[in-house]
Inverse folding.
């Protein structure tokens, strides 16, 4: 009940079923974080220590944030999300205080998952002439990671599109020692993500996922021309298509019900009607 109190991070609403494809990545995160949170005694008995931090890396829009939220939710753990660039834009000394505050909050409500999105902004390579402020943030973060006790169920997930831009000190054992690549989806994975989005967002599809409308979308997603589409692109395509279809349907309804209304979709359906005749 204490986790419900204000200020305590509660588990997010995202679950594995909100994510399409990425089965290998999910399995890895399940073993690395969800299971250690759920069954700490098993890991202790077998003498396996879970990785302290996991770094998700790969091209933008392919579910890194979604995965981090689902991991916390599946582990019934609190979730604290921090965007790297937001932490940076603070007054001198305030960024370090914020980093320390994040870990303090997590310690007060373990099990907890801390998610650092765009972590490259926070801990860039120190060789690239860093400002004093940045160096202080890197050192604070490293100190907090090193100070985490194995007994406290606090897991840190970082996300980046550019792992080469991160301070290598962060990748040493006991820190972000597990790297997981989150790739662009392949043909069949795009279709799977599409189905997941339709179900998750309750997108109205005429005839459902067995109907002709969905078959057309499925063909488009599977086609070679769709290579390079990210999960975010697929989500945008489907929700956009749904709102276009909805506008179209509304246009038809207006045309039948009220002759005075002439939206663009009404015009379109009139034109099509004329063509059909
Ligand atoms: P960025 O690097 O830009 O932060 P990201 O990898 O963290 O991107 P998310 O924010 O998790 O990507 O994904 C963006 C949106 O794309 C999600 O809200 C979701 O709607 C959709 N999405 C991406 N990948 C998937 C997927 N595998 N299944 C379902 N939806 C997905």
């Amino acid at each position: 009940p204490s986790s419900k109190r204000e200020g305590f991070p509660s588990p997010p609403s995202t679950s594995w079923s909100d994510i399409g494809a990425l089965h290998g990545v999910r399995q890895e995160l399940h073993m690395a974080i969800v299971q250690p949170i759920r069954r700490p005694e098993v890991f202790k008995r077998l003498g396996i220590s879970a990785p302290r931090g996991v770094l998700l890396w790969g091209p933008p829009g392919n579910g890194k944030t979604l995965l981090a939220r689902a991991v916390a939710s599946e582990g019934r753990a609190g979730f604290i999300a921090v965007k790297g660039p937001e932490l940076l834009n603070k007054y001198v000394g305030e960024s370090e205080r914020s980093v320390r505050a994040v870990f303090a909050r997590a310690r007060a409500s373990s099990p907890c998952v801390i998610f650092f999105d765009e972590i490259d902004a926070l801990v860039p390579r120190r060789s690239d002439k860093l400002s004093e402020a940045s160096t202080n943030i890197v050192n604070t973060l490293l100190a907090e990671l090193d100070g985490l006790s194995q007994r406290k169920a606090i897991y840190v997930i970082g996300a980046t599109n550019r792992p080469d831009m991160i301070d290598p000190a962060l990748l040493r054992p006991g820190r972000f020692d597990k790297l997981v690549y989150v790739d662009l989806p392949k043909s069949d994975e795009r279709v799977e993500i599409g189905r997941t989005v339709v179900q998750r967002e309750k997108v109205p599809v005429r005839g459902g996922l067995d109907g002709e409308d969905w078959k057309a979308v499925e063909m488009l997603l599977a086609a070679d021309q769709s290579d390079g589409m990210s999960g975010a692109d697929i989500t945008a395509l489907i929700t956009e298509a749904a709102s276009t279809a909805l506008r179209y349907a509304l246009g038809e309804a207006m045309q039948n019900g009220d002759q005075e209304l002439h939206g663009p979709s009404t015009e379109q359906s009139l034109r099509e009607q004329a063509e059909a005749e």
